[in-house]
Amino acid sequence: MNTFGRIFRLTSFGESHGRGIGGVIDGCPSGLSVDFDLIRTELGRRRPGQTALSTARNEADEVELISGIFEGKTTGAPIAFLVRNTDMRSQDYDYLKGIFRPSHADYTYHAKYGIRDHRGGGRSSARETIARVVSGAFAKMLLNSMNISIEAFTTQIGPIVLEQKDSTQFSSELAAENPLHCPDRETAEAMMSLISQVKEEQDSIGGMVSCVIKGVPVGWGEPVFGKLHARLAEAILSIPACKGFEYGSGFDLSQKGSRQNDAFYFDGESISTRSNNSGGIQGGISNGQTIYFKAAFKPIASIRIPQETVDKEGVAVQIQIEGRHDPCALPRALPVVEAMAALVLADACLLARSKELKF
Amino acid sequence: MNTFGRIFRLTSFGESHGRGIGGVIDGCPSGLSVDFDLIRTELGRRRPGQTALSTARNEADEVELISGIFEGKTTGAPIAFLVRNTDMRSQDYDYLKGIFRPSHADYTYHAKYGIRDHRGGGRSSARETIARVVSGAFAKMLLNSMNISIEAFTTQIGPIVLEQKDSTQFSSELAAENPLHCPDRETAEAMMSLISQVKEEQDSIGGMVSCVIKGVPVGWGEPVFGKLHARLAEAILSIPACKGFEYGSGFDLSQKGSRQNDAFYFDGESISTRSNNSGGIQGGISNGQTIYFKAAFKPIASIRIPQETVDKEGVAVQIQIEGRHDPCALPRALPVVEAMAALVLADACLLARSKELKF
Amino acid sequence: MNTFGRIFRLTSFGESHGRGIGGVIDGCPSGLSVDFDLIRTELGRRRPGQTALSTARNEADEVELISGIFEGKTTGAPIAFLVRNTDMRSQDYDYLKGIFRPSHADYTYHAKYGIRDHRGGGRSSARETIARVVSGAFAKMLLNSMNISIEAFTTQIGPIVLEQKDSTQFSSELAAENPLHCPDRETAEAMMSLISQVKEEQDSIGGMVSCVIKGVPVGWGEPVFGKLHARLAEAILSIPACKGFEYGSGFDLSQKGSRQNDAFYFDGESISTRSNNSGGIQGGISNGQTIYFKAAFKPIASIRIPQETVDKEGVAVQIQIEGRHDPCALPRALPVVEAMAALVLADACLLARSKELKF
Amino acid sequence: MNTFGRIFRLTSFGESHGRGIGGVIDGCPSGLSVDFDLIRTELGRRRPGQTALSTARNEADEVELISGIFEGKTTGAPIAFLVRNTDMRSQDYDYLKGIFRPSHADYTYHAKYGIRDHRGGGRSSARETIARVVSGAFAKMLLNSMNISIEAFTTQIGPIVLEQKDSTQFSSELAAENPLHCPDRETAEAMMSLISQVKEEQDSIGGMVSCVIKGVPVGWGEPVFGKLHARLAEAILSIPACKGFEYGSGFDLSQKGSRQNDAFYFDGESISTRSNNSGGIQGGISNGQTIYFKAAFKPIASIRIPQETVDKEGVAVQIQIEGRHDPCALPRALPVVEAMAALVLADACLLARSKELKF
Question: What residue segments make up the domains of chain C, in order of their start?
Answer without folding.
Answer: 3-354
